[in-house]
Amino acid sequence: MTASASEAQTFDRRPWLLLSPALVSVLLLLVIPTLFIVVYSFWLRTAVGAEQVGFFLDNWEEVLTDSFYHDILFQTLRIAAISTIICAVVGYIPAYFIAYTPTRHKTLLLLLLMLPFWVSYIIRTMSWINILGVSGAVNSTLMALGIITEPIQMLYNEATVILGLVHFLLPFMILNIYVSLDGIDRSLADAARSLGCTGWQAFREVTLPLSVPGLAAGALLCFVLGAGTYITPMVLGGPRNAMFANLVYEAIVTQLNWPLGSALSLLLLALLGTLVMVYSRFLGIDQIAKSFR
Amino acid sequence: MTDANQNAVELRDVEKRFAEFVAVRKTDLTVPEGSFVTLLGPSGCGKTTTLRMIAGLLDPTEGDIRIKGKSVTEVPIHKRNLGLVFQNYALFPHKSVFDNVAFGLKYRDVPRDEVKRRVKDALQLVQLPHVEDRRPNQLSGGQQQRIALARAIVIQPDVLLLDEPLSALDANLREEMRVELKRIQRELGIATVFVTHDQSEALAMSDTLVVMNSGWVEQMGPPDLVYNEPASAFVADFLGHSNILPGRVAGEEGGFVKVITDAGATILCHTRDRAGRPEGERVRLVMRAERLLLADRHDPAPGTSLMTARVKTVDYLGQSARYFLTTTGADGDPGAGVELQAINPIDRAPFPEGSEVWIRVRGDDCVLLDGDADA
């Protein structure tokens, strides 16, 4: 009797049991709050400042039709894309260096890479004010050397926003590329060289294409994190350099218009979510997972 | 000007040091055109370092490396025209089999049609003609190794360098590939340097066997000579099972050197140069386990030595048995209590444990080494 009972019970509960803490956390901390936001986005904020519960499409209409939002959205994606490309180019070199360093120094270098995370992201971003500000390190040095007489205004433009983003995102890119490079069999480059490649050609033929999964994973991570940031443009950008998340912040914190803020944040979420899906479709999600192994 | 009998590879006084560590010491090595030379030794003996220096993956600290008579010490790896096969195959995982094999041709400006033909020929040679479009990870280990070999030979290299190419394969496949590799090497007549730690591979495949130990070449020669006439205790120990007994020269008898072992047994022993040794000199005797012939009783015969022993343990191997013996020194022979190993073919049943046997060993099968410890 017990044998037939256990036979009928082909459904194995253990994986789900082991997954349940994660599933519960995702449900409570991610899915349900997101559903709240979805509901919020259909409410309406009236002129007196109260929220009118109901099903209104006004917020969505505004968000989807007003070119002001589209311009900022485009600016956001552009800034995120430029920062990601710079991170990929600049990050590849240290990643390569760490991957090809003798093992006993590797741990130290990886630790140094983690070091920025011990300092708050906001503090790290603000540090650029002390470097590039009117009375910052660069200006005072140039003035002390007599190269300039008046401080140069270097902050609060798109370039400094990108600089701040690169500063923030670079460790993520380096780590991803590093993991990918570290997994490449060293004898592959040797084999390529023995067949007639110079060191540079061997890199282009073997090492670079095999590190693409890491580059891709790093790029995705950097782009999504970059497109969703609001602190960097707030601290280092001027009024014209606002990014999409600043609009959300503005709507929710300053205007207290939660319904509009919800619609805006859902729009960004939908766009970035679509990007991740398209990305994983073309590269295969396993390719990205591989670089985390 | 080029001489037909020139050497494919020549190492002259090559030494490699990594900081304080000497990986390869003052080594001379020649690989004649068309021959198969094996570097054999335990891990860390310098065999792979030597191969990597020939390949150009490592620079020698001292000395000169010549390929086809030309010094390549200053020539970078990609200009050396060598076929290199790695232990882990090192196939490019992101390229098809065709692109893998054609890789070296791409960097030699070979016309498209000829690339196709040569890749096809190479795949034919390694007996994998229909896998061009596959990815390396769609092939088995043995197939991958064949592709790696095809990729190395398709460029018509001056020398083929094989770095433990069989050790990642399982036992059956390894033997099959061993035969295959040797066939391809013969067919192409290409000078080959093969690195291995597997003595049976080394003995089966080589024209010349180079036994290395802690950076030194211990012995170099045809496999049968190295096996039968080990030049050092290390070689005797590393290849097969040997009994090594210290002793002292006690004169001559019938063209053999008479040695009295420290335990007291008298054993006749040949010398390679057939020259005698001064009486009283400290020597060591090497007797291969399979050359100790066991029987219930042996009659004395010229040029042979006899010992008696008791069988301590028998390791039954089917067609043969490995015996662990303790000499007993019957008939007033004081050579008792020495531990010996013997490997004999079995006639019906092996000698049981505890039984008394006679051991006969021919003087021709005993090798004389100098007495000072070199291993």
In words, what does this structure look like?
- The complex is a heterodimer of chains A (293) and B (375).
- With 293 residues, chain A is an all-alpha fold.
- Chain A has one domain (58-290): MetI-like fold, CATH 1.10.3720.
- In chain A, 74% of the residues lie in helices and 1% in strands.
- Chain A is built from 15 helices and 2 strands.
- Chain A has helices at 2-8, 14-40, 58-65, 67-99, 103-114, 121-132, 137-144, 158-182, 186-194, 199-210, 212-227, 231-236, 244-254, 258-283, 285-290; strands at 44-45, 51-52.
- A two-stranded antiparallel sheet of chain A has the order 1-2.
- In chain A, strand 1 and strand 2 (51-52) form a beta hairpin.
- In chain A, helix 4 (67-99) packs antiparallel against helix 11, helix 9 (186-194) runs antiparallel to helix 10 (199-210) and helix 11 packs antiparallel against helix 14.
- Chain A is globular, with a radius of gyration of 24 Å.
- The relative contact order of chain A is 0.13.
- The model of chain A is unreliable at 1-5 (pLDDT under 50).
- Chain B has 8 helices and 20 strands.
- In chain B, a hairpin with a 2-residue loop joins strand 1 and strand 2.
- Chain B is elongated and about 75 Å long.
- In chain B, helix 2 packs across helix 3, helix 2 packs parallel to helix 4 (141-153) and helix 3 crosses helix 4.
- Chain B has 2 domains: 7-234, Rossmann fold; 241-370, Nucleic acid-binding proteins (OB fold (Dihydrolipoamide Acetyltransferase, E2P)), CATH 2.40.50.
- With 375 residues, chain B is an alpha+beta fold.
- Classes of the chains: A mainly alpha (293), B alpha+beta (375).
- Chain A binds chain B through residues 185, 187-188, 190-198, 201, 205-206, 209-210, and chain B through 55-57, 76-78, 80, 82-84, 86, 88, 90-94, 103-104, 106-108, 151-152, 155.
